[in-house]
Predict the 3D structure of the following.
Amino acid sequence: MAEHDEVEQNRGAVHRRDIAAIIRLVVAVVIIGAFIALALDNRDDVPVGYVIDEALAPGWLVIVLSALGGMVIGWLLRLRSRSHRG
């Protein structure tokens, strides 16, 4: 009975994990917005050097691909650390 009363009393409470999830979402949206603003501001072609050659590519494309590459690397590192735990 006491447990039921406690559940009823805290029904509308916001828990720490909920706040953490909201903060993570806000930070992610801000970072994505910053990348979009940066990409839109850099629409000129830029030289991209390869090991053998060099080519011109739109600046926004270089920024977006770099951001996606960083996200993939972070995701892979996170998967690796999870597999070593258990």
Summary: Residues 2-85 form one domain. The mean pLDDT is 82. The first helix runs from residue 2 to 9. The beta strands are 45-49, 54-58.
